[in-house]
Amino acid sequence: MQRHRDIDVLVLGGAGVDTIVYVPGLPLPYTDSYMIEPGIRTRAGQTGDFVALGLTALGLRTHHLDMIGDDPEGDLVRALHRDRGIALTAVPQPAGTKRAVNLVGPDGRRLSLYDASRSHVEDRFPEATLRALAEAGRHAHVAITHPCTPALPVLREAGVPLSTDLHDWDGENPYHEPFAYTADIVFLSTARLTDPERTMRRIAERGRAEVVVATAGAQGAYLLAGGELTRIPTAAPPAPVVDSNGAGDAFAAAFLFGRLSGEPAWRCALYGAVAGAYACTVPSTQTDALDRDTLLARAAELESATR
């Protein structure tokens, strides 16, 4: 019997709050104190939140599942989803809502300090809740935060296609391997890779990934699909680059939009490049994402220019 899929993308994990601190440079030289302009701000939005925001802005029916605390940070996360029309299932997290401090330099580079006390390896999603949401979804995007590792077998049993973002994986840390070798679509950054192609091919050979995408910032991205490695060009940002925070999440959301629309992998990657470039023009203190019409128009321009 065919199941009714009323969720386009189920996003697992990655809900939390960031405190943004603009610094005069990275690495930050030691001194007794700094005067921070334009100030310090705390706002909801970590990797899962930004993927869910990007998907929703593109018109996809999105549902976010994570463990969230009964605390001020959790209130910010719930308000973000409520204000942006993103369905949220918040499982109580006694340790509190995930949070981080992001130091952002003048060139938009970011250094994140994650509070590891807000989640524990024994954390679990209620299996019945997870399974019901997975069976209602066309796709699931899984963050590498707790408690997503033990959720992977349940998602596989539910028969939903999976994607994940390994972020700045070095290709060696075993924590990332269950995600890398279970997902059908794998995103990662080249930031800590000495040989991106080798890592990408190892992911495809050892796991079940049909597509592997490695983003390389201003150098574009690498796309491995059907055994063929392709370079994806950068997209021109529509405004000055102010912050790289959320660029990878925007790339993943736009790529998945293309995937669920039936587009070939290379066009999905062009969508990702356009959305990622736009995200770099949005200050860390804000949350914003491209709408569908703007994405399609800018991607068409990029495709025409690269022919």
UniProtKB/TrEMBL annotation:
Signal peptide location: none
Pfam families according to UniProt: PfkB
Keywords linked to the UniProt accession: Kinase, Transferase
Cited Gene3D superfamilies: 3.40.1190.20
InterPro entries per record: Carboh/pur_kinase_PfkB_CS, PfkB_dom, Ribokinase-like
Domain named Carbohydrate kinase PfkB: residues: 185-288
Molecular function GO terms recorded: kinase activity
The protein's name: Adenosine kinase
Organism (species): Streptomyces colonosanans
